[in-house]
Amino acid sequence: MEYEEVRFEVADGIATITIDRPDVYNAFTRTTILELNDAVRRAGADDDVYSVILTGAGKGFCAGADTTKMPDWDDQSMEEYGAYLWMIQQLVSKLRSMATPSIAAVNGPAIGAGCDFALACDLRVVGDEAVLREGFVNIGLVPGDGGAWLLPRLIGESKAREYLLTGRDITPEAAVDIGLAVEQADDALVAARALAEEIVNKPATAVQHTNSLVDPTRSFEEYCQLAAEYQWDCVTDPEHQEAVAAFNEGREPEYDRGLGE
Hints:
alpha/beta, 2-enoyl-CoA Hydratase, Chain A, domain 1, 2 domains, 6-stranded mixed beta sheet, 8 strands, 46% helix, 14% strand
């Protein structure tokens, strides 16, 4: 499908999804959310995609909802509002549940739901001009898109409450210090691509299964059962066998993926 407000590109095993509304720091409309949902679904279902990057065009990651495009909620019902919010929550859910590793290249402001999109990714790289801000409390709202669920699991409950209850900015330096971001870089997208390439060069089944095993809501018993199933998938996977052979022979592994063809 052709998109109006999102760019979707696949190259060398990496899908790059770009929110493309740079004039408003990539603040989203209903169209943006529908297109993002579809793009993330496509990336996760593509066997030739081994890593996904989510970023924004220009100088922003995503400034949250475009308030100039919002419906007049005075004329809407709670059910209609819930349906609108559900679309946004589904995007966060898709990012969270996707086995293919996702990386947020936070090149600028990530505000409100835009912050939640970054938090929903598996990894984050922040640029020098990045800022992550839940900020809902500043305008009399709650984090309806997942922020109050995601942030405590990423940085701990106490620190998460600080940012959620004050609406304070998380600077690039703080994001790295508290373990929210992998690194700070001059160019977040370039650094994210380098990280994605490193992941692409690992055995794909092992990467996806490892990514799926990371779930703080799962009990240890559930983890062990799932890990045994996943380990068997890996043991019988040709890429595992090639990786072991390459290690024993002192060479780089060669996986039959047809990348670049």
